[in-house]
């Protein structure tokens, strides 16, 4: 989108595609897991083969972080994308080494804050897809957007 977006720019039904895809690497999966989610199926191929995932899989939290990166790059909220809450997050397919992820965000609603009329709350849903267009994660989140002309 490029330009900074204000509350008035968000309309229900509006869809925003990520500007690019992001490739997940073995090294990044292991590095993230070692630091934040040190479970065998994220760290060791042999252990992962015997796990629920039947192979190395990225942490769901890594997938969420990548989704955030792609959202911020493609949806430039004036003043930054400040989170107001997560209503739902679901990890629907494992993310594997070599997967290419991209996102689609749909705006559900945009309303002005009663207590802070210079701000608004935007509710959105984001789907994260792999290169086969399989949904690997979905979330429903709200974020703050400033009012252009308070």
Task: Describe the protein in words.
With 150 residues, the protein is of the alpha+beta class. It has a single domain, classed as Hotdog Thioesterase (Thiol Ester Dehydrase, Chain A, Roll). Helix content is 23%, strand content 34%. Strands 1, 2, 3, 4, 5 and 6 form a six-stranded antiparallel beta sheet that branches. The longest helix is centred in the middle third of the chain and has 15 residues, at 60-74. The radius of gyration is 17 Å and the shape is elongated. The relative contact order is 0.24.
Using brief descriptors, characterize the structure shown.
single chain; alpha+beta; Thiol Ester Dehydrase, Chain A; 6 strands; elongated
Give a brief rundown of this model:
The chain is α+β, with helices and mostly antiparallel strands and 150 residues long.
By DSSP, the count of extended strands is 6
CATH topology: Thiol Ester Dehydrase, Chain A
Q: Give the biggest beta sheet.
A: 6 strands, antiparallel
Helix content percent band: 10-25%
Q: How many structural domains? A: 1
Tell me the number of helical segments per DSSP (H or I, 4 or more residues long): 4
Average of the residue pLDDT scores: 96
Order of SSEs: EEHHHHEEEE
Shape: elongated
